[in-house]
Each structure stands twice: as structure tokens, then as C-alpha cells.
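Exercise: predict the fold of this chain.
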Amino acid sequence: MIENDTIKLLRECDAGVKMGVTSINDSVKYVKDSGFREILQKNVDEHEKIKSELQELLDKYHDDGKEPAIMAKGMSWFKTNVTLAVNGSDSEVADFITDGCNMGVKSLSRYLNQYAAADEKSKDLAKKLISLEEALAVKVRGYL
């Protein structure tokens, strides 16, 4: 049970971190304020560190991880490539990022509860990712 929950939690974290990196990278090109751009880039760097930690754990369990859901990727692509292309203000980008962070926190918290038998290292990594998302949402509030 522990190994099964651990793998499932790691997969969901993997999909979440991939979605976060893609969304931020897709939206940063619309950011005009250099401080805002720096916040986003630092956050991508932190996501990449967590992604590496996740990959190490997934490798330990001989698992390939998980790609984000097609629907979520499509909605994100539409938002960044259509909506932001039309009105790519920093406020719109901050709104998009905030929504993504909130969805990530909600989903990852649900998975953390759902896979409660996961090992502590995996749960700690999920909590670290949740904290990163929460912190980003707070940091971009000044651009809303």
C-alpha cells in the first residue's frame, strides 16, 4: 500500500510540476515588468529543482511519471496563446498565474490526502510543491 500510494502521489506531483513550468514559460513572454519576469523565472528554477527530486524518486520506483491532462494543457495553451496574446498585460498574466497556482494547491492537497499512505519523503516533496505554488500566488498579487 505504501509503495502504491507513493508512486501515485509522485506521478501527480510530476504532472503538476510539468504543468506549472509549461504555464509559466508560456506566459512569461507577455510580462513587461522586469521584476515580475524575475519572480516567474526564479519560480521556474525552483519548479525545476523539485522536478529533479521527483525524477530521482520516480526512478527509484522504476516509474516514468505522468504528463499533465490533455484538457488542462489545452486550456492553458488557449489562455496563454489566445487570451494573453490579445490582452497580454501584466495584470492578465498575474491573474492566469494565480488561477494556476490555486488549482495546483487544490489538486496537490487533494492527492496528498488521497494517498496518505505514501512515504514521508514523497509527502514532503508534495508539501514543498504546494508551498512553492502558494508563495508564487502571494508574490504576484502586486501585479493583479
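Check your answer against the key: The chain has a mean pLDDT of 90.
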